[in-house]
Amino acid sequence: MLKIKFFFLLIFFSVFTFAQRFGYVDTDYVLSNLPAYGNAQKQLETQANNWAKELENLQFVLEQMQQELETERILLTNEKIKEKEDKIQEKKEEIKKLQIKRYGPDGDMINTRKKLVKPIQDQVYNAVNKVAKRRNYSFVFDKANGDLIMIYSDPKFDISEEVLKTLAPDLKSSKGQRQNNYNKEKNNNSINEKINLKK
């Protein structure tokens, strides 16, 4: 369906705006080659690991409490059993609240990602605008955007490298090296996704 929509979009632009200039950018490629973005991702990953350990520790405590109750149940009075069950329930609620706090719709994970990554994404957007104006493009499509699928793209219209150089003019790696690293990363992600789907 998306391909059909994009096909008709191309026809529309071909008929009514044939004099306009078009370009496209792969923002995934640009971001993956920006040191600042890599650092932001590492910070986010480190924080996420800390939160995961925090929840694992609470889960371990909960399991210990449950195991202790089952081991001692036969020796305990009903009142003592009820007391321990209440504490177990409190621990479950504590874990649930922490999960929501860390990973909920307005949780720490999303807010931290916004804080670390959004400023860099805004820089990319501004760089795209600069390159588009410099090249007199009327439209620039994002090749990485899943809502817009390109059925054909001429490399001569790819401004990803120019956007990257606008953001990070001092990059030492060559274009070929960056492209190879990016392709390897995409392939690894694709393989990991397939493995996860099979589980």
In terms of quaternary structure, the protein is single chain
- Quote the beta fraction: under 5%
Q: Which sheet architecture does the biggest sheet show?
A: 2 strands, parallel
| Rg, alpha carbons | 26 Å
**CATH topology title:** Protein Binding, DinI Protein, Chain A
Provide a count of the helices. Answer: 7
CATH class membership: Alpha Beta
Distance between the termini: 29 Å
Q: Which sequence of strands runs across the widest sheet?
A: 1-2
Strand elements, count? 2
Mean pLDDT: 81
Gross geometry: elongated
The number of domains = 1
Assign a percent range to the helix content: over 70%
CATH superfamily: Skp domain
Decide which structural class fits the backbone.
Answer: mainly alpha
Ranges where pLDDT stays below 50 over 5 or more residues in a row are 194-199
- Indicate the CATH architecture: 2-Layer Sandwich
Order of helices and strands: HEHHHHEHH
Features:
single chain, mainly alpha, Protein Binding, DinI Protein, Chain A, two-stranded parallel ribbon, 7 helices, elongated, disordered C terminus
Care to give the gist of this entry?
The chain is mainly α. The chain has helices spanning 2-16, 27-32, 35-72, 78-103, 108-134, 160-167, 175-198; strands at residues 22-25, 139-142.
